[in-house]
C-alpha cells in the first residue's frame, strides 16, 4: 500500500500564520521534524534543492507550500460541474500523463490554502447567483485533494460545508486510498466521492506514486458504506496492446469487489487520453523513459478551452472505445448512470 503523503520540505507564507489552519499545520510539521522555510508567495518557490531539473522536480513533488488562495474567482469545470473550487494545487503522484503537466508545468510543488472560509464565502456567492438551480463544485481540478487531506482536513471541511447547503453539491476524484478520516464527515449525501480507475497496464506503467487499484476499490467500498454517493472515472482511457481485455478485467474486478449497497447510486465518467504540445515537452523532460505514446500524427487535433490544441484519438478510435467500454458498463453495472465520454 502506498503510504499517506508526508512532505520532505514545507514552505510557509507569513500571512498563513494569521489563520488557525496555518498555525496548526506549521506546528504539525515542526513536530514531525520536517524542514520549514518561509516564502513571500506560494507562486514563487525558486530555491528548491537539487543539482539539476530532474532532482528539483522530484523534490518539488514532495514539497508542500502553506499559503493563501488569492484569486477567488473560480474556474468553470465542464462537463462534471459548474465551478472548480480551489482547495489545493499540485499533486504528489507521478502519473506521466497528468493534466497538471499542461496547467502547472513550471510549478510542480503542492500548495494548500488556509483561507478556506473565504473560499467557502465565494462558493456561497456563486450558489446564490444560480439559485434556485443547484450548483456543483469540483474539488479536484488542480490537485488530487484526497492525497493531501489527511494532513489538512480542508476537504473534510468542504464536505461538511456542502453537507449543510441546500444549493450546492461537491464532487472530486482521487487515485488515493487514504480516506479513513473522511468516513465520518457529515456529508448528507451532497458529495459525490469518485475514484479514478484504469486497466492494469496504465496503472502499472503510468501511475507511479498512487494507490494500487485494489486499494482504491477497498477505499471505494468504505466510502459507499459511509453513505456517500459513489462514482468512477475511467481516465485516461488509453489504447494499448490488449486494451479491450485490460478494461474488461478492470470491470470484472470492480464487479467482484463492489458490494450491492455501493451500486445504488453509482456514476461512471469516461475520459480518453489527450495531450498538448507543452505537456508533451514537460512529460519528456520529467519522465524521459516513459512508454506513453505521444505522437501527434496518430491523433486528432481538437481546439481546447485554454486556447491550445489538444491531441485526442481519431473519431473511429473514440467510437471503438466508447462502444467497448459502454458495453462492459451495461453488462457489469446495468444500474449505474453513465454521465459522459469526452
Ligand atoms: Fe495528476 Fe491525479 Fe496522478 Fe496526481 S493522481 S499526478 S493529479 S493524475
From TrEMBL:
Task: Supply one GO molecular-function term.
Answer: lyase activity
Keyword vocabulary terms for this entry = Lyase
Coiled coil where?
Answer: none
Enzyme class, UniProt record, top EC level: lyase
Which first-to-last residue range defines the signal peptide?
none
Write down a Pfam family by its short name: SPL
Instruction: Give the E.C. number(s).
Output: 4.1.99.14
Q: Which organism is it from?
A: Piscibacillus salipiscarius
For this protein's source organism, the top of the classification is: Bacteria, Bacillati, Bacillota, Bacilli, Bacillales
What the entry lists under Gene3D superfamilies is as follows: 3.40.50.12110, 3.80.30.30
**Where does the record place the Radical SAM core domain?**
77-305
Q: Which PANTHER family match?
A: SPORE PHOTOPRODUCT LYASE, SPORE PHOTOPRODUCT LYASE-RELATED
> In which domain of life is the source organism classified?
Bacteria
Q: What is this protein called?
A: Spore photoproduct lyase
